[in-house]
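Reading a protein record of the kind used here takes only a little practice. An example makes this concrete, so a full record is given next.
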Amino acid sequence: MHIFFDLDDTLWDFSRNTHDTLGEMFLHFNFTEIFNPENTLPLTQKNFQNAFPIVNEILWDNLSKKLIDANTLRNIRFQEVLKYLGHDISLEFSKKLSDFYMEHSPTKPHLVDGAWELLENLKQKGHKIHIITNGFENIQHQKIKSAGIGHFFTHIITSEQTNVKKPDSKMYHYACALVEELPQNCMMIGDHWENDVEGALQVGMKTLFFNPSKKIVLNQETHISPQIHFLSEIVNFI
């Protein structure tokens, strides 16, 4: 079977790797000295690390809806994070923070628990394994290299490569055509309900929703897909 995985927070532990990078950034740029600790919302390292995923998810959602472009996301991301925490910074400083983040985060090696064992298992059983990701081309390839998992995959498909983003059905049609297989003979596995599950279901692919945090999906009842909480469960569906 051809099995397509999302990368961030499905295989590569985006949350942990980002958390570590933000901690390094906080210290590298001396945030404690730069920002007023008596602010209504003090800028502590913990606050900074907690705010990033909230703002980042909003920006990526805006990108998928074509409300902003990728370059804008990169440039304003930390400006928006710090604004969320009650601090204003220049666009120039925001770009410096973004450059640091883009340079250091992809070098982190941490995988989601069970990812390595799962990939080895699937490879040994003869399955063809691929990646479909909305991430930036060079960044996603660096993550895969840093984690040492590149040898598991036949194809790594990015939104920059295809000029479309999940959940656009064109992304999934492209993937199935690339491996010369019918959608019903392919499976998509990911942690984002709309992008990874609904998008793949649109073209007739099999799907697995990786939901380790057991988050509630409002429209899940209208689109049937098995749900798993641990990567090790995947072998039960293949």
